[in-house]
Amino acid sequence: MIVRNEQQALCVAVEMERRAIRVYERALMLARNEQVTAGIREILADEKEHLRRFSAMKEACPGDAAQERMLMQAMAAEMLFPGGVMELERAKGLDTLNGLYEFAAESEKTAVENYMAFAEKCANPDIAEAFTSIAAEESFHLAELKKKLERL
Question: Whole-structure pTM over 0.85, yes or no?
């Protein structure tokens, strides 16, 4: 995936977080296990906070053309949750904590890799720091998910 600058990186990051939120909101409607539902809510809260932060930064940057936004949406869909809630179901993430946490861990890993790559594309050090900071949060979430998986 080619992201040329911080505006594109922010646009893709916003779309990645929106996609994550949509997947987990749909998962909440389909999950049948109370523990899984609680796990989804916890993950969803983190994704909403990241969307808030990226959206605020994106608003501070010049606007993008409609065609570029469509491209960014397509790129975001490829990068994170390519199978959406159906992939979560295939991973048993709607029925078991193990499936949910494995699915979420893979998503966190992908997000960390992309956000670190985005940070390298940023000319603005504040935006680069924001990507690095959120990548660090995602790394922490990944470590926490791995610990939870070990305890199951």
Answer: no
